[in-house]
Design brief:
Layout: E1 7-11, E2 14-15, H1 22-31, E3 35-38, E4 42-44, E5 56-58, H2 60-73, E6 79-82, H3 88-99, E7 107-110, E8 115-116, E9 119-120, H4 126-135, E10 141-142, H5 146-153, H6 163-174, E11 180-187, E12 195-201, E13 206-212, H7 222-235, H8 240-259, E14 288-290
Parallel strand pairs: 1-3, 1-6, 2-4, 6-7, 7-10, 10-11
Antiparallel strand pairs: 4-5, 8-9, 11-12, 12-13, 13-14
Helix pairs in contact: 1-7, 2-3, 3-4, 7-8
């Protein structure tokens, strides 16, 4: 059953409180004119960033039944968008789901959620890293952060890096399957404390970079927010550098809008205050072509 608008199968966890995962994926993509079909991998009372004693429900046993019903309905998707997967078994189930589609292959975007700040999340282990290395071969686009890129490549995490090194990482990750690789939270080699997003498009052989101005605050869910804007932009027909640029600009705007308020940052960015900016005319801001 083909939709009148772009339709995305969003494979993420659902946090009942906090602006992460499906709580940001749904409003962002909906605002960008995309129908979101949620396939929750887990249900949490809150997200895990800054909260303790949260209630966690593993939804692995429900995934196949949902997928089977979708297939019975003949649903067609323009994009598979995968984020947090709670177990190696979920990787196998979602891989089978993606392989089962017999029509023109949808855009497949995988955010290989594994860890941050040089270490794995508590719910992840080496077995998941091994599974994820194989899983990303199914993607057109992957969006690991700097830590996740290191784990996927079995490289040592170090904030002391170079443009040359990241370009090598981008190419090696692309050789694992995806045509496009976007690495976020890369230490900016030119400006202390700043980070950047670097990307590689294997089909054109081009490398792209967008710098991110340092703001002394951490908000959970910015990775989910970034990739969601990239997905929406690509489905709207934007080029890769424009999609990355829009995502960085949106994250920066959201953090600046949130930073001036006194509220618990663990709740995430004040997404509701900036969603409408996604409907503003596209302005190419600060992307660079890296030689």
């Amino acid at each position: 059953m083909k939709s009148l608008v772009n339709r995305v199968a969003a494979i993420h966890d659902l946090s009942c409180f906090g602006r992460t995962s499906l709580a940001v994926v749904i409003p962002i993509l909906s605002t960008m004119g995309v129908q979101v079909c949620s396939l929750p991998t887990a249900l949490l009372s809150t997200h895990t960033g800054g909260f303790k004693d949260y209630h966690f429900v593993d939804l692995t046993e429900h995934l196949k039944a949902t997928i089977k019903h979708w297939q019975k309905l003949g649903l067609e998707f323009d994009c598979y968008y995968s984020g947090f997967l709670g177990s190696p078994q979920q990787v196998d189930i979602i891989s089978e789901f993606m392989d089962s589609y017999t029509g023109e292959k949808p855009l497949t975007v995988i955010d290989p959620v594994l860890g941050d700040d040089g270490k794995l999340y508590k719910t992840m282990d080496e077995n998941m890293v091994i599974k994820m290395r194989k899983f990303i071969s199914k993607a057109n686009i992957i969006t690991p952060n700097f830590t996740e890129a290191a784990y996927l490549l079995n490289e040592k995490f170090s904030a002391d890096t170079s443009v040359k090194k990241i370009k090598e990482w981008l190419v090696r990750l692309s050789e694992m399957g995806p045509e496009t690789v976007i690495i976020t939270s890369v230490p900016d080699c030119k400006v202390a404390k700043n980070t950047c997003v670097m990307a590689y498009d294997r089909l054109t052989g081009r490398f792209w970079k967008v710098s991110c101005v340092y703001i002394p605050a951490f908000y959970p869910g910015t990775g989910d927010t970034f990739t969601s804007v990239v997905v929406g932009s690509i489905l709207q027909g934007d080029s890769l550098p424009i999609a990355i640029d829009r995502a960085v600009q949106f994250i920066t705007t959201a953090i600046r809008a949130s930073y001036g308020y006194d509220y618990p940052r663990r709740e995430g960015i004040l997404l509701e205050r900036v969603l409408s900016s996604l409907n503003m005319p596209v302005v190419a801001g600060s992307y660079e072509l890296i030689e």
